[in-house]
Amino acid sequence: MNLLSIFVVIPVLMLAGLFLSRTRQQARVISATGASLLLVAAVVLGVLFAAERHAGNTAEMLFTASAQWFPAWNIGYSVGVDGISVLMILLSAIIVFTGIFTSWNIDPLPKEYFMWFCLLSTGVFGFFISLDLFTMFMFYEVALIPMYLLIGVWGSGKKEYAAMKLTLMLMAGSALLMLGILGIYFGSGATSMNIMEIAQSSIPMALQKFFFPLTFIGFGVLGALFPFHTWSPDGHASAPTAVSMLHAGVLMKLGGYGCFRVAMFLMPEAANELAWIFLILTGISVVYGAFSACVQKDLKYINAYSSVSHCGLVLFALLMMNTTAMTGAIMQMLSHGLMTALFFALIGMIYGRTHTRDIREMGGLMKIMPFLGVAYVIAGLASLGLPGLSGFVAEMNVFVGSFQHSDTFHRVLTLIAVTSIVITAVYILRVIGKILYGPVQNQAHLKLTDAVWFERLPVVVLIIAIASIGLYPGWIAEWIHQALAPIVESLTVAAL
Amino acid sequence: MQDAILLKIVFYFLAAAIAVFSVMAVTTRRILRAATYLLFVLFATAGLYFFLNYSFLGAVQLMVYAGGVIILYVFSILLTSTDKESPSPLFSLRRWIAMIASIGGICLVAFLVLTNVWPEVHAPATDEVNMKLIGHTLMGTEKGQYLLPFELMSVLLLACMVGGILIARKRS
Amino acid sequence: MELIPMEYYLVVSSIMFFAGIYGFITRKNLIAVLISVELVLTSTDINFAVFNRFLFPGHLEGMFFTLFSIGISAAETAVAIAIIINIYRNIKNVEVRNLKKLKD
Amino acid sequence: MDFSGFLMMRDEISLVALILILLLYDLFAPAKARKVFQPLACLLFVVQIVITLLPVSSLEAFGGMYQTTPAASLAKTLMSAGTLLVFLFSKKWIEEKHEIAQGEFYFLTLCTLLGMYFMVSAGHFLMFFIGIELASIPLSCLVSFSKKDGLSAEAGAKFILNAAFASGISLFGISLLYGGTGTLYFSDMPVALQGTPLQIAGMILFATGLFFKMSLIPYHSWTADVYQGAPTQVSAYLSVVSKTAAAVALFTIFIKVFGGMAASWRPVLYIIIILSITIANLFAIKQKNIKRFLAYSSISQAGYIVLGVVAASPQGLTGILYYMMVYMFANLAAFGVASLVERQCGNAEIASYNGLYKTNPWLSVLMMFAMFSLAGIPPFAGFFSKFFIFASAVQQGYYILVLIALLNTIISLFYYLLIVKAMFINPNESPLPRFRSDSYSRIAMVLCFFGIVLSGIVSFFYNKTNDMATESMEMCGLSRPKAVEETLDANPVPGQTLNTQGSTAMNATASWPSVLE
Amino acid sequence: MEYTLFILILPLIGFLSLGLLGTRLKGKTAGYVGTALLAATAILAYITAWQYFSTPGVDGIRPTLIPLNWEWMRFTEHLHIDLGILLDPISVMMLVVISTVSLMVHIYSLGYMEGEKGFQRYYAFLGLFTFSMCGLVVATNIFQMYIFWELVGVSSYLLIGFYYTKPEAVAASKKAFIVTRFADMFFLIGILLLSYFTKTFDFGLLCSGEENLFASAAGKTFMGGAVLSWAMALIFIGAAGKSAMFPLHIWLPDAMEGPTPVSALIHAATMVVAGVYLVARLFPVYYFFTPEVLHGIAYVAAFTALYAAIVACVQTDIKRVLAFSTISQIGFMLVALGVSGMGTVEANGLESHEGLGYMASMFHLFTHAMFKALLFMGAGAIIHTVHSNEMSRMGGLRKQMPITHITFLVACLAIAGIPPFSGFFSKDEILTATFMFKPWLGVTMTFIAALTAFYMFRLYYNIFWGKPAQHDHPLHEAPSSMTSPLVFLALVTVVAGFIPFGKFVSSTGAAYIIHLDWKVALTSVIIALVSIFIAWKLYCKGSSKVPDKVAGFFGPLYTAAKHRFYIDEVYQFITHKIIFRCISQPLAWFDRHVIDGILNGIAWITCRGSLAFRWMQTGQLQSYALLLLCGCLLLLCIGLFR
Predict the structure, then answer these.
(1) In contact, E336 and E314? CB cutoff 8 Å
(2) What is the pTM of this model?
(3) Is there an interface between D and B (3+ Cβ pairs < 8 A)?
């Protein structure tokens, strides 16, 4: 069996195991084991990938495998990874792992919860390993739909509204996407739905102009592209902790990943021609999300708007279409994935204790739960781009890369995007100041306890991941550079 | 010549009967009358078939409709004992739309029929269709022969019979 | 026969057809509605016969279609009347306006 | 006289044999033996299905009156399978409420099935007409099968009268076609079609019958009422089997007979698709009754199916057949669950599904899978069928149409999720108590379950369907209809991949200039 | 000189170990560990300085050494962030300053912070700060500097907010971070602009004065200014933020909410001069390519110095006075840089040192760090005893706190520019340089120097003389752990003026002998003495009515100055009224109501949509047929007349 298929097989086996499980404990153990296996597998994949690259294998995709599935449409189950996919798989594995632990005490219906969770991760991993447009799209939708029940059943607040809104908006995006994918396939005249093969052939400009926006918006909805982002605040606010983590941490990355792997890579001419529209939209996302976050009162809303801003930066950087900016975009995906997951995990833990997410009702929590407090500060600092943590690395790549663009328009937009670093600081510090510092607001909170082991574990893992990217971005950058080379090349050629 | 005039008169009579009685059938208040007008229309249609020298068809029409269907109608009307329709409101949107649509439909069909370029009309065979031919055609398996539909018809009639009995028989 | 153009027949049949349709839509009694259906079906029979006689006298397709059509409409009528009687048993009348329990 | 034609009609003859056996058994078997009537019927029916599964090639019989292709045979298998599932779901219901009429139920159902067989396999308008009548007149008896139920009676009346009305219009259309072409044979007609207004009018009026059967808007109005009033099993049958027959017949006739007039029917279908999908979706949102709900859902699904006709390619045919297969599993599962729940709680309100998962998890899961499949969510089969039918339409350049259809899937997803929401999320103080369904229903549900889950992921089903459809199209010389060459879109699709070569048989008809063009 | 790396690593180890071990360590132990590590760091810094300055350079020019340089992250072929160590006169000087002051603060804090909760955290943060500050000064490229620039910002944030349960401290820390962050944004934009044209971040290349490097920017203008000027001005805004130049100074007075030793270390001696350091670092670029920006810096700095000095005269919180004094003094340094030329020119037969300002600025930076740290620590000792920051709560403390008194006096004399204390020498050079540039600027700066002397002695007299305030607890001298750093720094302050600073640090790296310009020196000393005299007259007795009269005389000016000329209010207005009220809230509203509203509206319309088609389903059998008929006829028409 192909190495990569493991990432789909493990969650499926987990599903089967959970299906047979009887008690909460069993469900937990199975999930935890599976998630750990996934994490190990992801690390092994990373190591093998590095070894292979080190050995001089310069193929665009490694560990490829392919099998016919629907020959009538040349659909195959083709898998393969490049540096970016490996990183995304690592990210997903980390977040799935931490997510399982974060939802250790999920209630009610733990078994079902973990099953949906597994289905979601199947979709996520499947998406990242797929090279076939159809398979990719299928996994994409597989990853989306469990959100409905995960939010609807286990969520809080106006969960039904939020779940429905989220599902419908994302599926609307994927509906556009479906047309986009079909258009790409038929437009290219390729004899395969394999991305790498479609990339060899060119799609006529007239079609690109029609399908590029569809595809880009399709993925962009998941990447919280303004003005299609409003599912994000409500969805995140209502979702259970681990789901918010996975959703903001990984699922939103599917959007960004798809944007460049499918939309921009396969339709470079249209990407060049239409980039300005989306640059403006993403530029708005960046600033707008940040400003909106400033006045929110619910912790999750703040974080959700912050995600809008950060994910906006991902798409923004991708559209700059040079290696540095796109590297920054990928790094931002990783960074945002990790730190939002951390944020949501912490918010979940805090909420689990205080039973409120309203920042006005909290205060002085640092004194009561120092571990969570410190972790929150670290997450906040990562979010506002403190050097040494992942956010900085990503943002600097984005800004420097974007600013290297020879076009004044792009540079002016970059300057606008740069302002987000200040606004980010404003809302992050506002929250930290309100909830962690200051006098204790609610005397009942004094009795609360700090995190326990299964809460500390994910937090520590995430912080380590954030710091390791932030401290030593070199290896990641190298993988990303390598993986981006063909994409950037096709974009550059198309620009001429 | 006289034949021709006579034929014309017969045709116009039949045509007028069909047109008038069918309109009356759908406009009269009393259902029993409607059934009667229908009977007249069906008679006239049979007459048209005879007129076209499709005597067999005319005969079937008479037997099936006049002999069967109309009786069925009359019985069922008597059974449900609602001879008179309830008065209709003076203005009914549905009625007007139906009227406009019907008239429009007639115009449309007339337009189609009148503007259509019909294929070269062969000298119509005025002779009667031979019964033997009818029998062969009904029982043959070649092209232009109708054994299979005939068999299928039998299933249809059987099914309708069973179904009709099932629905109409008294509750047990 | 050739004295009378084919179109005349067709016009007659379409009048009958649309009279039937008008009746179907406007009648208030189920049986009257069914009578209108009868008109519709019979009018098309005329068409078949006429086309066969005037345009394609070489074969009997139209005539046979009419033949079968008569049979089918009779069968249909029988079943429809059975159903109408069933309705009568249920609601004690056969007014169309009383069949409005199922809607929206 | 050559009766060998009957031997070629393997599927139909076996079905007729089955009908006769059951009829006679019901008539003459002693009361004790009548207890095993239903198991016996199902068992024999399985045999019949196996017979339809045997490979077949395209052939004609009775001078072209009857013709069959692998695709038609597959369609028949599907219809039979669907009917079998309906039987399985009905067993308990029949036993409890209509034991006296069990023979009639099976007989009538199988007769309509036979009619549908002939709809699919007709080679002549008369055959087709008799088929469609055979498929609808006894069906009306089935619709008013629950005689004591006023709603059932009302539904029956609405069905038979509307059907008669539609078939009257359809018949008028056939008469115009006959007048315009001088033939009623499918195989002869293409040559005689020049696209004169009369012919076009004939075609569109004729199609009324099919559209009515498929319940496409604006021919749909009866659907919801009839589905609601009819016994749930019959609604299931109507929504799946009857629709399959109509869809396949629509494709066959529009491509085989009217392929040359594609330019005329394409805009019509275009509009019908958009109307059906959109309006039905809008209606479905508001429904409180699960059967009405499923009725509107089936209308919009029919709209998607017609996309395959518009595509007019082998992939389109595959798409239709495959869509029907997938749709059959999902819709029958939904109706099956609905019938069980309805029998348990006495009504078909969606509200009675609230909190169902707590008490009846398996039913809820099956229902959810069915809903997801209908909504086209992977990994359920519905996703694949939707994708492929859209793909076949996009292949022909119908971008806007597909876009509209795709946007409508969102609305449909919304209302399908409402059901899921009712079962899983909505709170309910007193949900329906836990109950055990009978073993026949359970077998049916398991079959549906596997159908929903596997018929997509396991590509065998699609690939096999595709082989059959391609073969059928090639044999009829229809693999490259005219519709392919001219697309509605301003931008022609360069590099379009058509994996079959156009054959010459159709070229004569394909090159007719349409009068109105 | 690779061992310089340990100057960075040791504090970092301190941060990590104390931070991770946290409360598992006893507070005192944590303090000792931190102090020991810092002591080692300081020793290393001294060794470095010794080694660096003892090696003669080529042609008498001090070399720029880069013992270490790793590529950390690569952006493009030319642009990459390196992490390395760059040793040149100013960075070595800064290392000495930072490690000295930091060490003193570490020692001092052992006493000052004794018994505080979070002792470990405090020392961890101090370690982080020292690490970041050292990293900043040894940066080999502008991006490395930016990285550490951010890190010092965060350390400052954490330390200001050390008493995180105090709302004022939290607000102050937030303000400090956001204001500096705002400035940093301009810094970053400046870096982006600069690097866009020069394709390098490297200081070595940037400061080499290569014309080619800037060739691509030549002739390009933006809104009337050359792009390069824009870039350098933006970078200066970054510097201004950190160095609290008007109008970005507002965070500094508030930052006094932090523990006093922190104020001494970060907000007096080291971090706030980072801006000066940055300008000095990029001095060649400013001087050669954008002299107009350099002059602009001088004017801004001069204005800030004046403004801060005026405000300092009327503040009553001793730390605030010191904070404004810091702002003012940094203004001096930047003025000096702004008016400076480069190198030595022979003019009119006299050797005129064009680079005097540069040297003076660095010199003042050095001396100021020492005496200002001393002042803050002295103030800390006083606050430690008095438990208040308000001058009114003090008075007559000279008896209770003799050591503090003497050291404080030394520092006051130094800052007032009284010979032979170090401040005299450095300030004199600055005044000379400004007189050389523009005489009126020199006059202004002299006036500010007089103001400085006035407000410092106002402070001094108010604290140590005058009428003692009532206290319910006995006042006592600070413990030795606090007084020893005071004494040490006082000694440095006394002798530092005699260091031949020009030999070590100059604009070109060539040694330079300091000459006192006696005219300037004499004037400034006399004026300073006069100011001290006035202060003595006004405040020595404590109960004098004169100050109030003076205040009354100045009227609105006095009130305005007391309210720091309402700059905070302006900020408050901008942030709360404009940004929050007029941007954020409308945006959030827009998001919730317009964008979401549109979506919900679509959903609503869809749900309502079925009503539009309700007529289709009346339940009336014949209307269904009618619909069918009409639909059929319509479609027929479409098929026919398409």
Answers:
(1) no
(2) 0.90
(3) yes
- D106 shares contact with chain C (CB less than 8 Å): no
In a domain, C1, yes or no: no
Structure tokens at D6: 């009957």
Tell which E residues from 80 to 109 touch A, by Cβ distance under 8 Å: 81
Chain segment B1-40, per-residue pLDDT in tens: 677 888 889 999 999 999 999 999 988 888 888 999 999 9
On whether the CB atoms of residues D120 and D75 are closer than 8 A, the answer is yes
Contact D133 C30 (CB under 8 A): no
Q: What values do phi and psi take at B131, rounded to 5? A: -60, -35
Residue of E nearest to D208 (CA): E632
List the structure tokens of A295: 């006045």
Separation between Cα atoms, residue B144 and residue D428, nearest integer Å: 65
ipTM of the complex: 0.89
Whether a cis peptide bond, with omega within 30° of 0, leads into B87 is: no
Selected residue with higher pLDDT from E510 and D287: D287
- Of B31, B169, B86, residue with least CA distance to C89: B169
Instruction: Say if C1 is an interface residue toward chain E (CB within 8 Å).
Output: no
Which SS3 state, helix, strand or coil, does residue E245 take? coil
Chain D interface, mutation test: which of C66, C86, C92, C103, most D Cβ atoms within 10 Å?
C86
Instruction: Locate A94 and state its tokens.
Output: 């980390």
Residue with tokens 């000694």: E491
Q: Which two tokens stand for residue E100?
A: 């000295």
d(C-alpha A389, C-alpha B108), whole Å: 77
Contact B31, B85 (CB under 8 A): yes
Question: What are E's interface residues with B at a Cβ cutoff of 8 A?
Answer: 620, 622-623, 626, 629-630, 633, 636-637
Handedness of CA A31, A32, A35, A40 (dihedral sign): negative
Of A176, A189, A201, the CB nearest to D496: A189
Q: What are phi and psi of E71, to 5 degrees?
A: -80, 125
Residues 6+ apart with CB under 8 A from D357: D364, D365, D423, D424
Domain count, chain C: 1
Q: Would you call D104 and B162 a contact, using CB atoms and an 8 Å cutoff?
A: yes
Residue E445 in contact with residue E332, Cβ under 8 Å? Answer: yes
Please write the tens of the pLDDT for every residue from A213-272: 999 999 999 888 888 888 888 888 888 888 888 888 888 889 889 998 888 888 888 888
Residue type at position E94: M
User: How does residue D165 score in pLDDT terms, banded at 50, 70 and 90?
Assistant: very high
pLDDT per residue as tens digits for the range A117-157? 899 999 999 999 999 999 999 999 998 889 999 998 888 88
Q: Which of residues 32-71 of C touch B (CB under 8 A)?
A: 32, 34-36, 38-39, 42-43, 45-46, 49-50, 53-55, 57-61, 63-64, 66-68, 70-71
Separation between Cα atoms, residue A148 and residue A141, nearest integer Å: 12
* Alpha helix segments (H runs only) across E438-555: 439-464, 480-496, 501-504, 518-539, 546-554
Amino acid identity at E287: Y
| Residue C69 falls inside a structural domain | yes
Residue contact E177–A425, C-beta within 8 A: yes
Alpha-carbon distance of B168 to B170, in angstroms, equals 6
Which carries the bigger pLDDT value, residue D334 or residue E344? D334
User: Shortest Cα distance from E602 to chain D (angstroms)?
Assistant: 11
Nearest alpha-carbon partner for D486 in D315, D316, D312, D320: D312
**Per-residue confidence (pLDDT) for residue D442, from 0 to 100:** 92
Asked if the structure places residue C32 within a domain, the reply is yes
Encoded tokens for E553:
């005389």
Is residue C103 assigned to a domain?
no
- Kindly give the parts of chain E with pLDDT less than 70: 343-353, 541-547, 550
Mutation target to probe the E interface, by most E beta carbons within 10 A, among B85, B93, B94 is B94
Task: Quote the domain boundaries for residue C46.
Answer: 6-98
